Amino acid sequence: MNALTDDMEVFFLPSWVIILLAVAVLTLVYLLYLHYAWDNRRRFGLPGPAPLPLFGHIVEIMKEGICGFDLNAVRAYGNVLALSSGLMGNALGDVMISDPDMIKEILVKQANVFVDRNINGEAQISPLEKALFAVKGDYWKQMRNTLTPTFTSGKLRHMQTMISKCAQTLVDNLKKKANTGEKFDSQIWGCYTMDVICATAFGVEVDSLNNPNHPFVVNADRFNNINLGNPLVLMLFLCPRFMKMFEPILPYVPGVKSYVGPIKYFSKTTENLLQDRRLTNDGQYKDFLQLMLNAHKLSTSEMSDDEKQDEKLKKRVLTTEEIAANGMGFFAAGFSTTKDTLGYIAYLLATHPQVQERLVQEIDDVLQDADPTHDNVSKLTYLEQVINESMRLYPVGIRLDRLADQDTTVNGLFIPKGTAVAIPTFAIHLHPEYYPEPEKFDPDRFSPEAKAKRNPYTYLPFGMGPRSCIGMRLAMLEMKMVLAKVLQNLTFKTCEETQIPMVLSKSRPMKPEKEIWLKVEERAL
Ligand code: HEM
């Protein structure tokens, strides 16, 4: 009997060890179950890259960058595939769709089902949570209705003088560089874009080229240089819920404070400007802030009693917080997008002198030394082709995304409510089926004849449908006016520091690995 007991003790461990082992086994089983449950390949019956337990595709993304990851995924698994984000819920999207007919269905035909972006509305840093980009459902529809009239051709025509002045400052500066042979990097486009956005959105003249230490310039630069190679920043970027949770301490966290600080700075500045306008409004301003403020005023003092009863009008009111959010939102959505696109266009022109020559010829023929304006730049068709082809190769909005607000079926694929759909713009733009020799810069891909032969849903730099970029016309006007003005005077050239071919960064989405350096030469007139 004793011998038997001794033998059993060899096999039986102390009870605390047994409990620990049981907990470990149960945890493992639970994690395996989660891994199984979270694997969207099984859920949707679609092919896709194998996710890591808990971490989904995060390691591949850190290695290849989001652009590289999307490109490889589409090449390996085709036009409709499943993604799994593990612990991060659906941050990377549940399904990724690059089939043009399905994209049309999602962005346009079923736009009412796919209204929202895949951002958790209440989980973003204040006040951006109330900006058009982030808001959801009916709230978004009403806000978009209110803001759409601020971007009409008529309103933009009012802004052309401000834009022209900013373009002239840039040209004067570039002329000096041409005379001294000084090289410049793409930050110069940031100065122009900054001046335009400050003037058109806030009515503030910054002249960032000559005032590089202006707080607007310093904060914009910080905001524009988010380092997604920093795992903390990447986590906050992919899981905005954590941002909300830790918002009070974020300004003190190294690496993250450079992202949060500028948001706070711009929202405070917008609020202060609004305050001043309310006190001294004499109708002199024609900027977005004023246009939003007018919509705001309409709801209160200028409304008749009947109007005050109208639910629709009441809902169109923008609160001070919403105006501040959208002032900051226009800045966030319109600054680095336009700046980076201009940087890529200048690089492509410098590295393709025959395209630049043809463009200069068009500008000379059509404008005949006239100053670029809202109306005459619309006649520069080759310029539009050059911009379009540049945005095909370097779409700064690398992906579009939508959430399904209800169960639906898209071209035979059942998409349950809550599914996050990712549309990989960058990978679509480099798809050889739509764009043969996709890496080649060829603006003739956007001639009217070539465009007519292509499915329009293979080109998405500004998105598509009711939730597409509200600032598209402003961005195009801003880019056309400055490029026409620069090329009336100067020619872009490469220099020793120009990286050819350009390599894209893996840690900063759609940014060059090395800064783009160029020089300019004055045209012999
Ligand atoms: C070259 C410059 C620009 C590019 C490439 C660009 C690209 C985009 C893209 C891809 C989207 C998402 C569209 C979608 O989901 O279907 C977007 C949305 C948006 N953009 Fe732009 N954008 C640019 C300039 C601007 C400017 C100058 C402004 C404002 C002043 C602006 C304001 C916005 C806003 C507010 C949204 C959100 C619209 C909504 O949710 O209703 N963008 N942009």
Automatic annotation (TrEMBL):
Membrane topology: Peripheral membrane protein
Cellular compartment(s): Endoplasmic reticulum membrane; Microsome membrane
Organism: Lingula anatina
Transmembrane segments: 12-33
GO CC terms in record: endoplasmic reticulum membrane
GO molecular function, one term: oxidoreductase activity, acting on paired donors, with incorporation or reduction of molecular oxygen
Entry-linked PANTHER family: CYTOCHROME P450 FAMILY 3, FATTY-ACID PEROXYGENASE
Role noted for this protein: Cytochromes P450 are a group of heme-thiolate monooxygenases. They oxidize a variety of structurally unrelated compounds, including steroids, fatty acids, and xenobiotics.
Recorded family membership: Belongs to the cytochrome P450 family.
Keywords: Endoplasmic reticulum, Heme, Iron, Membrane, Metal-binding, Microsome, Monooxygenase, Oxidoreductase, Transmembrane, Transmembrane helix
The keyword ATP-binding is assigned to this record: no
Stored InterPro entries: Cyt_P450, Cyt_P450_CS, Cyt_P450_E_grp-I, Cyt_P450_sf, Cytochrome_P450_3A
Keyword field contains DNA-binding: no
Name the UniProt record assigns to this protein: Cytochrome P450 3A24
Cofactor(s) needed by this chain: heme
